[in-house]
Amino acid sequence: MPVLKTMFSIQETQNSKLSSVDWENLAFGKVFSDHMFEMDFENGSWKTGKIVPFGPISMHPAMSAIHYGQSIFEGLKAYRFVNDQVVIFRPEMNAARFVNSANRMCMPPVPEDIFVEAIRKLVELDKNWVSGKEGYSLYIRPFLFATDPLVGIKPAETYKFMIITSPVGMYYSEPVKVKIEEYYARASKGGVGRVKAAGNYGASLYPAKQCQIQGYHQLVWTDAIEHKYIEESGTMNIVFQIGGKLISPTEESDTILRGITKRSVFELAQSWGVEVEERKVSVEEIVQAARSSTLEDAFGVGTAATLAQIAIIGYRDEQLHLPPLETRILSNKLKNHLSGIKTGIVDDTFGWCFKI
Q: The dihedral of CA 195, 261, 109, 62: what is its sign?
């Protein structure tokens, strides 16, 4: 896509923290790079953005985002090619989804070209934080929140858009165990399940904690009305393989986030001639397929984990074991090919990698 040469003010840090990073023990999302991006919305328009040294921000105790939840975010990653080129994976899709989230939450959308250019400029400045180690990347977190100093339930008039970045390793170090949730719901029809609203994730913490106490990594969310249909897996979209076909819950529902990683997985699979299907997927169908050993594979797909293969699906008092990882030809191929595209080992024939 065309690069917008937007002018941002830049204040570089005089005290880089890069040399203090323990790359061998890098906890996900706990270490942050040297700079961050800020841009304010006031009097009906966006002001000039700025890149400043990473650090705390001040806020009014009555700031409306804290009290009424007008807060959205995105997540994407930058990678280092084998030739040392740094790239960002499909930022234009995050920019478009961020606009949709803002509109649904009554917030001023950040223009897509400014969104992408702000990320590009920030990553360019902190490119030394993008590790070339296998499985490592620079996680990028754009977020937008209301800043009115007012305790009153209405759309705010002032907002702040920020971007922070964090060097990360692998999100999951092993295949995941998930449990089908039949009481709690992630989202309901007419709600905000399709957008990356902060409150969605806060509401998921309690049920997720309960399943983790039982020895699972995450939940498989089901529909809020009958709990008969599968929607997502934890914070990821979910994909099943039955009869060689990839099947995933349809994103036409406004309860399911439109996943960028899932879209990439499906586009890649289709380019290989693999049949894909997005439709309503019932719990009964998946449970019966697992019991009869016709469920060939199941995996979560999302920015943080990319492709997380599922080892066990818990259903009520039953544990359904999936085939050994080494037998899962398609998901292994998809995972390795996506990694290859992001690191320059495989040709990026789709044009997904945005070079800084």
A: positive
